[in-house]
Structures are given as structure tokens and as C-alpha cells.
Amino acid sequence: MTRDENAVDEQPTRTSGGEGEDALARLAGRHATGYRSVGVMAYDIIREAILDGTLPPGHKLRQETLAESIGVSRLPVRSALIQLESDGLVEFHDRRGAVVKSLSVEQAREVYHLRILLETEALRSSMGEMSDARLERLRMLGRTADAEQEGADFVEARTAFYAELYDATRRPIQWELIDQLRLKVGRYMLGWRLVGDDAHQHSHDELTDAVAAGDADAAVELLRHHLEGVRDGVLDMLAAESTAGPAPATGRRRSGR
């Protein structure tokens, strides 16, 4: 399966020590222009580093190191970490300070149970009010997501597809709940495209076709099948990591959806 959050064919890459700091500095270089606020820049850089695995679950987030790598003072870094805590990506401990939040197998299973319930209902509701204009945007966004291979651009394209699919503009509270659940299990896995089985390779087009045909049952079944496949891959990964520990930092895995 493709790791549209699905099966696992290779161990996730871990970065450590100076390698992680160098990767963070490269991210900072890409984000260094176009910001009116260093706080927003620090937040975007750290968030992307968590989502793409540069800062993996359990990684200790030292404010001095982050500030030096990004090229800002500690204050915007501290503010960014507080915001990321509210996003569910970072947690603070009395003795360890801030760390990238980890997820247990049990928590991931619960998250996907809730996602399936909420997202299938969101899809049915949205299809009842689907317009030709929205359908056209949906197909364009799906193809954009399929064209992206990894990292932040893929995550953004995929998020935009599902925001349109679930009519986030008209149902902002529902979308906020869905997005929060996606982030809870997504973290660094959210940006990975798993390889090994092509069962979900064209899921965006297939899902859009079912929506265009007005076949709610078929669309919901495709979505459910996709989320269940994603869930099983994530659970396998988390179970393996809980027994084997972090994989060595060699190479990069392909990013997924």
C-alpha cells in the first residue's frame, strides 16, 4: 500500500544531534523571507520539522538550540512551542522541558475510530451540498496532492483536498475537529508516502469520481477503506517502534499522505 499513511516497507528515519540541527537550519533558510513576525516564522519552521520527521516523537526541544538553528531569540521559540502544545504536537514536562509528543498504539487506535466516524459523516453531509465549482476544485486539489512526492507541500495539498471535500468553509468547527485528529496521529508520519502496495495510489481521483457520481455509499466506503488501511499501517509502525526503539538516522523515507 502507499503510505498515504498506510503500510510500512522501511523503517522511519530518525535525525539526531548535529544532523537534526543542520536540517532545522536548512528549513530556517527556506523560511527566512516573507515573514512579518519572527514568531510566526519560528512556529512554521518547528511545526514543519515535526511533521516531516526532522524532529521525531520524543525529541527534546531545547529552546537555545532551536533559537540558534532558526536564527532568532528564545522568546519567539518559546511562544511557538506553547502554540504547538495547543496543536497537540509538543508537550511540556517538569524535568525534561518541551518534547515532540509521542503517541501510543491505544491512542492511535482511538484517534482513527473517531476519524472514521467523523469523516464519513462529514463526507455524506458535504456531498448533499456539492456544487460543480467545488467538484472542479476538489479534482484539481486531488491531482495536486497526487503530484507531490513528500514534505510540507504534499501535506498542504492533501489538507486542502480534504478541507474542500468536507466543506470546511461552511462547517469550520467540524473541520477543526477533523484537522486536530489528523495532527494528533500525523506528526512526522503525516508527510510520509508509504510504498509497497499501490492500493491507495489514486485514492484522490477515485474518491472524487464517486463524489461526482453522487454515490455517497461508494464514496464513504472508499474513504473508510482508506482510513482503515492508514490506521493499520500506523498501528504496525507504532507497535514496532515501541519494541525496537528509534531507527538509526540513515537516509530519508519517502513522504506520504
TrEMBL record:
Alphabetical list of Pfam families matching this protein: FCD, GntR
Gene it is expressed from: hypR
Organism: Agromyces marinus
UniProt-annotated stretches for the region Disordered: 1-21
Organism lineage: Bacteria, Bacillati, Actinomycetota, Actinomycetes, Micrococcales
SUPFAM superfamilies in the record: GntR ligand-binding domain-like (SSF48008), Winged helix' DNA-binding domain (SSF46785)
Keywords, sorted A to Z: DNA-binding, Transcription, Transcription regulation
This protein's name: GntR family transcriptional regulator
Domain HTH gntR-type: from-to ranges: 36-103
InterPro entries in the cross-refs: GntR_C, TF_FadR/GntR_C, Tscrpt_reg_HTH_GntR, WH-like_DNA-bd_sf, WH_DNA-bd_sf
